[in-house]
Amino acid sequence: QVQLVESGGGLVKAGGSLRLSCAASGFTFRDFYMSWIRQPPGKGPEWVSYIGRSGTDIHYAGSVKGRFTISRDDAKSSLYLQMNSLRADDTAVYYCARPADNNGGSHFDFWGQGILVTVSS
Amino acid sequence: QPVLIQPPSSSASPGDSARLTCTLPRNNNVGDYNIYWYQQRAGSPLRYLLYYYSDSDKGHGSGVPSRFSGSKDASANAGILLISGLQSEDEADYYCMIWPSNAVVFGGGTKLTVL
C-alpha cells in the first residue's frame, strides 16, 4: 500500500534552516509528481511546492519562493524540502502528498502523517 | 495565484442539506477548472471527497457516499459542494482546491456544524 513518511521537523529559531524528508513506498515514485502542503495550527491547508517527474516542472507558493527548495531522489524514492530563512509564519504541520494523476493537476489521494515545524521568533 | 473564497461557517440540521460554496475571482472562470473538495474532521488529516468539472466529468473518492455531490454556479463563478441527508459525522471543515497551471490553491475552508 502507498505510504508517505515525513521526517526532519522540529523547533528552530527564526532565520534558521531545516530539511524535511519524505520516504515513499508502495508505488513507482519516479512516475509521479509530488508536493509539499502545510497547515498552520488552527488554519486551512496551504500548498507549498510541487515537483514534476525527473525533477522538472518545479513551482513554489509566493510565500516561500526564494527561501525553500524542493527536490527528489528517485533512486531513494524520497522527496525533500530545504527550508531556509525560516519565519514564525512558517510554523505548520508539513505534509508530503501525492496527486492521483501521475501528470499532476489532480487531487491529492495520498498524504503523509505530517511533521510539525515550529519556528520561534 | 487565484484566491478561493469560502464562507467561514455554515450550519444545518440532521437530515437537511448543506450547500457549501467556493468562489473564484472574476478573472478565473470556474468553467475552466476541476474543483476538488476535501473534508477534515477535528484532529484528522484531509480526506478527498470528490471533484467536479461538468456533469459528464466528475468523480468521487473511494468510499465517499453519493450524498456528497459537486456542481458549479457559473453566474456566481463558484464551485458547489452539496451534502444531502446530513449526519452528525458530517460536522467538519471543508476545503475546495484547484490546480491552475503553475500552482495549487486551497480555499480558506468552511466549518460545517450539524446542529
Helix amount of chain A, in percent? under 10%
Radius of gyration of chain A: 13 Å
State the order of secondary-structure elements of chain A, H for helix, E for strand: EEEEEEEEEEE
Mean pLDDT reading of chain B: 95
Helix-strand sequence of chain B: EEEEEEEEEE
Q: Can you tell me the overall shape of chain A?
A: globular
Low-confidence stretches of chain A: none
Helix content of chain B: under 10%
DSSP, total strands of chain B: 10
Largest interface, per-chain counts? A-B, 21 and 21 residues
Could you walk me through the main structural features you see in this protein, from its secondary elements to its overall organization?
The complex is a heterodimer of chains A (121) and B (115). Chain A is built from no helices and eleven strands. Chain A has strands at 3-7, 10-13, 18-25, 34-39, 46-51, 59-60, 68-73, 78-83, 92-99, 108-111, 115-120. In chain A, strand 9 and strand 10 (108-111) form a beta hairpin. The N and C termini of chain A lie far apart (40 Å). The model of chain A has no long low-confidence stretch (mean pLDDT 95). In chain B, a hairpin with a 6-residue loop joins strand 8 and strand 9. The mean pLDDT of chain B is 95. Helix content of chain B is 0%, strand content 47%. Chain B contains no helices and ten strands. Chain B is mainly β and 115 residues long. Chain B has strands spanning 9-12, 18-23, 35-40, 47-54, 57-60, 68-73, 78-83, 92-98, 105-106, 110-114. Chains A and B meet through strand 5 and strand 10 of A and strand 8 and strand 9 of B.
Topology readout:
The complex is a heterodimer of chains A (121) and B (115).
Chain A: E1 3-7, E2 10-13, E3 18-25, E4 34-39, E5 46-51, E6 59-60, E7 68-73, E8 78-83, E9 92-99, E10 108-111, E11 115-120
Parallel strand pairs in A: 2-11
Antiparallel strand pairs in A: 1-3, 3-8, 4-5, 4-9, 5-6, 7-8, 9-10, 9-11
Chain B: E1 9-12, E2 18-23, E3 35-40, E4 47-54, E5 57-60, E6 68-73, E7 78-83, E8 92-98, E9 105-106, E10 110-114
Parallel strand pairs in B: 1-10
Antiparallel strand pairs in B: 2-7, 3-4, 3-8, 4-5, 6-7, 8-9, 8-10
